[in-house]
Specification:
The chain is mainly alpha-helical. The chain has one domain. 63% of the residues lie in helices and 2% in strands. It contains nine helices and two strands. The chain has a two-stranded antiparallel ribbon with strand order 1-2. The longest helix has 39 residues. The radius of gyration is 19 Å and the shape is globular.
């Protein structure tokens, strides 16, 4: 049914989403950062800031098409389900803003790297577990998924939701490969206790255990280092 409703605009939107995911993953990868560091070290103080700005700019075209050409309605929240969707949306937004307290905003945005003139790929934040990281390993991805799937679904929205969800799953896998490089057995231990994207009652860290894991010495690669655990 959905496939029969696809038109050239939807196909172009899919291409833009795939292009966005590819570029975003490329610039987030360690090997590309290392390449830039080796070939163009003068760029590195600007790298994180440019990465964030590029991520925002490249997001505009597919989101524009999604909003301007939604297509037919696929499903719609109604009755008590609509109140549930509103509640989940508000909870996700609140969770996102509360989680910001656990991040170094200047480090995350890239302004600190620019100010210090850093010419490396090292992030200065240490291994840290926020309250949300005791329930899932990637809380920002979870909040984003909630925001995505609590909308009324039109054809373009559904296509975008599926693509973004798949990318978050892939992104969490790629992110964890980096975190293991940076934190070694410390992150492997944490990963044994906490689920990735869906909170599981039997895989939740209590405050004491979270503090114990966060206090362990991390195994950081001597030549490359990067995002801390709470760098979703």
């Amino acid at each position: 049914m959905i496939l029969s409703q696809l038109n050239s605009t939807h196909v172009f939107m899919i291409i833009l989403w795939l292009l966005y995911f590819s570029i975003h993953s490329l610039f987030a990868s360690l090997w590309f950062k290392q390449f830039i560091l080796s070939s163009y070290p003068w760029i590195m103080p600007w790298y994180r800031l440019a990465y964030n700005l590029l991520a925002i700019l490249l997001l505009i075209p597919p989101v524009f098409l999604m909003l301007m050409f939604p297509g037919d309605i696929v499903w719609q929240w109604s009755g008590n389900w609509r109140y549930l969707s509103y509640s989940l949306t508000l909870a996700a937004i609140a969770g996102f803003f509360l989680s910001l307290k656990s991040y170094d905003s200047a480090e995350f945005l890239g302004t600190l790297q620019l100010k210090e003139g850093r010419k490396d790929i090292k992030e200065r934040e240490s291994f840290h577990l926020s309250v949300f990281h005791r329930y899932v390993r990637h809380p920002w991805y979870v909040f984003a998924l909630i925001l995505i799937w609590t909308r009324d679904m039109y054809v373009s929205y559904l296509i975008s939701a599926v693509l973004m969800s798949l990318y978050f799953i892939l992104g969490s896998y790629l992110e964890e490969k980096k975190l293991i490089v940076f934190h070694g057995d410390q992150y492997r231990l944490y990963r044994k206790y906490v689920a990735a994207l869906i909170p599981l009652p039997w895989r939740i860290l209590n405050k004491q255990k979270a503090a114990e894991i966060a206090a362990l010495n991390s195994h950081i690669n001597s030549t490359t280092s990067g995002d801390s655990t709470n760098a979703d």
